[in-house]
Amino acid sequence: MQNLKNYLLAAIICTVIACSPSRLPESTDTTKLQTEELAKFEENKAKKIKPNTPPSSFNLSGAMAVNHKGKGWNASLNWSQSSPNNYSIRLSGPLGGKTIIIDRKNSVITYRDGRKTIKSFNEEDLLKKETKVSIPVNNLYYWVRGVAAPINIQSINRNPNGQITSLQQSGFYITYAQYMTDSHCNVLPKKVQVQGNGVKIKLVVRSWG
Known about the structure:
It is built from 5 helices and 11 strands; from the N terminus they run ααβββαβββααβββββ. It has helices at residues 2-19, 28-47, 94-97, 123-131, 137-143; strands at 58-68, 71-83, 86-92, 99-105, 108-113, 116-120, 153-158, 164-169, 172-181, 187-196, 199-208. The model is unreliable at 7-24 and 44-49 (pLDDT under 50). The chain has a single domain, classed as outer membrane lipoprotein receptor (LolB), chain A (Clam). Helices cover 28% and strands 44% of the residues. An 11-stranded antiparallel β-sheet has the order 6-5-4-3-2-1-11-10-9-8-7. By secondary structure, the protein is an alpha+beta fold.
């Protein structure tokens, strides 16, 4: 009888042990595999982030402050760009409160200041002569849209969404403090600062069109 009890007790213990879920310590290889998979996931996620591709034509309104070697001005800005080589920039307020209009049609630049009209083939030289401030207009076409100009790029930093936060190019350091969305759902700069070669430019965009 005692042997039968011992047999039954042993059978019960074996059954309990067999039915209990086994928990094995997680191996180092398993942890390493999970870490590698996570790193691969983050890498693939980063690859999906594409640089911002803004429109080549645009209309913007805002304010602009320029300083060059102690000389500078503030102005309201209206910029209409129909193609890379065709634009009209209206600056209201600089140089005694006058309105300055700079138009470019292909390679011809027209500068209007009241009754004075000047034509040139180099907008940067023209602006430096008339406003006493050197402005990198050719590169501004790219920088104002949140992209780098095609040449002389030293460094680019982007946020997790792919927009540029800082850019070093052609002797200038460009920072983007804020972005906004236009009516076509394009993400474009709202606050831009350009500094270098003795020039400091601050641009705040009120609206993109």
